[in-house]
Structures are given as C-alpha cells and as structure tokens.
Amino acid sequence: MDIASLAPALIFLIAVALLFDFLNGLHDAANSIATIVSTRVLAPQWAVFWAAFFNFIAFLFFGLHVAQTVGSGIIQATIVDDRVIFGALTGAIVWNVVTWIAGIPSSSSHALIGGLVGAGLSKVGLSSIVWWGLGKTFLAIFMSPAIGFALALLLVLIVSWTFLRVAPIKVDSTFRLLQFVSASLYSLGHGANDAQKTMGIIAVLLFSHGMMGDTFSVPFWVVITCQAAMALGTLCGGWRIVHTMGSKITRLSPQQGFCAETGGAITLFMATYLGVPVSTTHTITGAIIGVGAARRVTAVRWGVARGIVFAWIVTMPAAGLISALAYLLSGFFLTGR
Question: What is the pTM (predicted TM-score) of this model?
C-alpha cells in the first residue's frame, strides 16, 4: 500500500489507533508480568523485556479471529467512517489514561468495545450493533475471570497433590523455572488477543475508505505494526497496576504464580481461537483470586477485588459515553463520509 496516497485524516486515525495499542500495552503490562515480578523470579525491568518479546511474536501462533470480530462483529462495518473510529478510540484512550493514572486495572478491551458501541449508537442508533458479536463479548466479561479462577484453582490442587512429598525448597526452585514458561505463555495470549483488537480497528478503517474492495481482511503490515506498538507499550510498563495485581489482591509464591499464569494463558488461548475479544485484565485477576482462594478465602483482599470489579462494570458505559461525545464533537475536526 502506498502510504503517500492515504488521506491525511486516515493517517491521523491510524496513528491514534496505534497510540491506543501502545497504551494498551502500557496499561496491561501488569497482566503479563505482575505474578513473575511479585514472586521475585524476575526484576521488573527484565520482566517487561520478556513479556514484550512474546507480545510481539504472538502473531506467529494465532489466527486473526479476534481482529475479524472487532472489525466487523461489534458494529456494522458498513456504517464505520472516520468519525466513528475517532469517537471509539477517544473513548477508549481517555478511559485507559484515567484508570492508568488511578492505578485501576480496568479493561482496555472493553473500553474499546464500549467506544465502538457508543460511536455507533450516536451515528445510527441500535441498528449499528451486531448483536451476536456484542453478546459473546459481553458474556466473556463474566466468563473469562470465572474460567481463569476455576483453571487456576484446579491447577493449584493438581500441583499441590503432585508435589506433596517434595521438599519445599525443591518445589520453590522448580516453579521459579516453570514461571518463565507460564509467563511466556500468558504474554503470547495477551499479545494475540489484545493486539488484534487494534488490527480490527485499522482494518475496518481501511475497509471504510474502500481499500479492500468488498472483502474485509487484515493486511500483514497492520499485523506487524500493531504487534510492535503493543510490545513497545509493554516495555514502558505500568508499575502502579503491577503493584495492585501482584501484591494487593493476594501474596503469591512461585508455585501459585505459575498456576495463575497458566490458567490465564489457557483461557486466553481458547478465547483467541474462538474470536472472542476478552479482557486480559479480567482473566489474570480471576486467576490470581483463584490461587489465593485455594490457600484460604481470607488470603484474598476482597475489598481490593470489589474495587476492581466495580471498574469492570463501569468501563464499557463510561468509555461509550466519552466516545459518543467525541463522535458528536468530531464534526468540527473530521468529515464523515
């Protein structure tokens, strides 16, 4: 594609989409590294390099089902124009920045979904919604943390029985090594599911400009650019949220960190394969709570968890409202076609 032939508004919106992707990596860095940092297996500066590498190479292992869902399965691709994308990205970015400053691990994914819905509703109303796609995404709000919780809890039980007669120091050293594997798997799932959301946004934007003909697809240059932007964001880290995810919810041992990351990774792999844009934040939080509850119910700081759940509930409507306002105001800056 000849970049020089792109309209200035299109170039601007692609840049804004990549900014969102970068902020997604920045905001959600904690999802990939919180457990391995809190167990002191890796120092934070090395953990972000580790996570960023696996964020970047995720496209080698997964299809683009999530990008297809975001690009054409949340709102009708035919109603998308510059103003809709501008509104959606503005809503998601503003909400991400607010929650990042506050140290709240909210969902970048659902901020983007809320932004798309808010802008779509502002343009044409309920007819803009693809209900099956929005429905499965909304269901994942509840299912992804529940599945992460259940898998992590099950893994803790399996691991505990397997290593019941092994010396604690041997168990600790074994799982310090295994956490490198589980953190890698989780970072792959994170990079695959989250980066594809921005791929879908850029692809539907190109589609709306008539650059794909009648067939919606994701160009390879979009794939590479989005993976790189997310990896760069992860490199910059999100230390406030690392602290919340890694220590405020519950204290983790290397064994528990392995179980949380593995349970979360399995959940993300399944969701990415099915094309469901789940929240990596929801998933790892559910898994961390699961390993904490396996030790004892009081090991989980439920007050912190309730605050996180509240942020989950308000993310989509808050981002949607900001998006709707941005869509209305964008008439002063962008010309919708």
Answer: 0.84
